[in-house]
Amino acid sequence: MKHRGRHRRRRRGQALRATLAGTALALTAAATLISTSQATGSNSPGALTPLTSASETGRLRLNENLVAEDTLSTLTRSMGGNVGVTGVLASADHAMRDGADCSDTERAALPLEPVATRAYCWAGDDARTQQWLPASVTTSGDADDDGQWGGQRVILAGWTHNDRAAGASATDRGLARVAFIDATDPAALKYRWVLLVAPRDGGKDFGAVRSRMGGMVWYQDKLIVTAQNGAGQDDALLVFDLHRILKAGVNSGVIGKVSGGYSAHGYQYVLPAVGSYSPAGGTCGSGDTGANPCFGSLSLDRTSTPDSLVATEGLTSGDDARTRIWRYSYSTVADREGLLADDSLGRVDAREAYTTKAGGLSGVLSHTPAGARKADWYVGHTPDSGGRHGTLWRQSGSGTEAVQCTADQSYACWGLHTASLSYWQETGELWTLSGTGTDTVPERVLYAVPLAAVDRSLG
To answer: What is the pTM of this model?
Structure first.
């Protein structure tokens, strides 16, 4: 569905951008609620350093592992067939609150500069947000260049269970789920939860996927998420097929096959994994000084040729260690839609890699401006201590820039406890989530900032 009606939809995208610009939320006042004492930035991380040696880039190699088609077909058939994204959205049972209806505490999590033009808070009556943490975001702007999926605009928000929450059960621990958000009407977002699972017993059963969900990208019909749940994880990335969303017919606390059908721990829908990518050099965090990277965040770069998956590592080997950021090309083979480009042995190699002195990264984005030869890399930094805004750095091989937003020249202008970054090419918006990694509920906000406004703020 990538190129249908491309020119007509580009005109619609231009109209949508104009509409959003004319109806931008008046959220500047909310930003002033943040005191200067909260806005404490980090030292500049300097320019990116390319990784060029085979031994360094070889650490980033992945092996592709796909689930047998018979296994997937068996599970799909047993659970009554694919429901699809459209089916999930049609049964959306929670309405998001517009930024104007968010509390002062929620709006205080928004960036100081540049100001968010759209912001949404989760439904106040949604009990499923109380013991969970938002971690990643991707959109139908990633999935297709017209920004739509089946005629709808969609946002996917990945959440992981907060295992430190009081009353967490053994079944809850490490669970991963995705909010499927119908964003077709910018004034009335609504969503439904879908639990991530993995097929078992040749497709006769399924079990829970347990992940921190630090990164997530929806490209064509595939959703790739970080599988890392701590050092030693065998898989680096998990792959899901958006044409294989299934309905659980039994409502119980069990995950998997039960008497009378299938149950998903109270969730109505499940998304089963169709494959994974594992580190070729060994489990994440292993090797000399932990040189096999653990994946932290992901994003899509549609300005590269071919389109590429961008990644940053989530764990480094020491406080003074540099953090790696890199990219993999997506496959251009017709029957491999949404999968990474591999060789005849199923090996996936990084196409480009750098290190940065920016630590504690909570998001990464690569984007090449029109007419430019090199990409700009945007990396989000979250302070180690709570209650402080983060920094969004723009890095390249020649230097680093960030907004200075307070009298003491702090760089802490970005959102509070932000998650991954996702660029919606059709509208020019940079999307992210706040509230990741914290135990407090009020800070959880989904918001968008025009990437052009970010660049203007950098001067």
So the answer is: 0.90
